[in-house]
Amino acid sequence: MTDIDTPEAVVAHLLEELLGLRWPARLNSAERAGVDLVMLDSDIAGCVTSWLNNGGSLDAWRLGILDRKLHELEQVLPELGEADQPRRWQLWHEMVRLITDTGSHPAP
User: Fold this and answer.
1) Which pLDDT value is given to residue 96?
2) Which end of the chain is more exposed for a tag (fewer CB within 10 A), N or C?
3) CB distance 66 to 58 below 8 Å
């Protein structure tokens, strides 16, 4: 596995793409499938950046958050319209799946 193929490199690349997307103001108070999209976005962002900053490790608390957010994303994705910027949520989904599927070891 080369450096560009590591889970950290893939997540960093996906995050870079996501950060290039402008947040649609219409989502500031939006819910889909009963999920507050601002909280979903910010909770995932905090966990993903922590994972990257910790070299692919997260504490058990943040791993639990990502498990819950993955479930919420899977509820939200089918409910999104084009104006909801579905690519943002697909990118988050890819990142969370990659982090949870790699068996991210809990940080101390």
Assistant:
1) 97
2) C
3) yes
**Other C-beta atoms lying within 10 Å of the C-beta of residue 19:** 10
SS3 of residue 36 by DSSP: strand
pLDDT means per 10 residues, the chain with 108 residues, are 78 97 92 96 97 93 95 97 95 96 64
Query: Which helix or strand (DSSP H or E) is residue 35 part of?
Result: strand 35-36
Count of C-beta atoms within a 10 Å radius of residue 62: 21
Question: DSSP assignment, residue 61?
Answer: H
CA distance 84 to 97: 21
What is the predicted pLDDT for the residue at 102? Answer: 83
State the amino acid at position 103 in one-letter form: G
Give the chain as a 3 state SS string: CCHHHCHHHHHHHHHHHHHCCCCCHHHCCCEECCEEHHHHHHHHHHHHHHHHHCCCCECHHHHHHHHHHHHHHHHHHHHCCHHHCHHHHHHHHHHHHHHHHCCCCECC
